[in-house]
Design goal:
Blueprint lengths: L1 H14 L11 E7 L2 E6 L5 E2 L27 H5 L1 H15 L7 E5 L5 H6 L4 E6 L2 H11 L3 E3 L15 E3 L10 H11 L4
Parallel strand pairs: 4-5, 4-7, 5-6
Antiparallel strand pairs: 1-2, 2-3
Helix pairs in contact: 1-6
């Protein structure tokens, strides 16, 4: 099953190799909202936010700012309600269909670590997250195995170490998703 996951990633990457974004087919604006818009490829259906992650007034991403964006009152329901735990359990169950219990799993863009905590009951799970505030909160409140990090930084320590790499709710926010996918592929164990 891990091979099927790798083939799916490889096929997506090869099929989308003509562009830094995806298939290089005709793209269309999918949605517009107050702070930006999403675009979708008509062929592969990949959607992304072309403007990338929102920046604060200080010019850093909302995830790297000293003020914990994820803890603001208007985001508390999104990040901290029971549905986040339910979604994390469902994702861990899905990963469990693809890799064996006890395998090493890396979650890229782990936020406060709900998935990492749930996956940690079955796997050796580690999450990397660019927000130091989110990592600190997740360690303290969820006892999640998190560290500050980003797929945008090439960390050789991750090379060929993981049976699965998850990137939930991240790729669509990156300016260069193809490079992120290719880097994540290097984190997978051979075979």
């Amino acid at each position: 099953r891990r091979i099927m996951l790798r083939v799916a990633i490889r096929n997506w990457s090869e099929r989308c190799a003509k562009s830094r974004r995806c298939c290089a087919r005709i793209h269309r604006r999918d949605r517009t909202w107050v702070n930006g818009q999403t675009w979708r490829c008509r062929d592969c259906r990949f959607a992304w936010v072309p403007q990338g992650v929102a920046l604060t007034e200080a010019g850093v991403s909302i995830y790297e700012d000293e003020t914990p964006f994820f803890m603001s009152p208007h985001n508390a329901d999104y990040y901290q309600d029971e549905s986040a735990v339910d979604a994390a359990r469902a994702k861990a169950h899905w990963v469990g269909r693809l890799v064996q219990n006890g395998s090493a799993v890396l979650d890229v863009g782990a936020n406060v670590g709900f998935f990492v905590r749930e996956a940690g009951t079955r796997f050796h799970a580690l999450g990397i997250e660019p927000s130091a505030a989110a990592v600190e909160w997740g360690r303290r409140h969820l006892q999640a195995n998190l560290r500050v990090g980003s797929v945008g930084i090439n960390d050789e320590a991750f090379a060929a170490q993981y049976a699965a790499v998850t990137v939930f709710d991240v790729i669509e926010h990156l300016a260069d998703p193809r490079t992120a996918i290719e880097r994540c592929r290097t984190y997978l164990q051979p075979g």
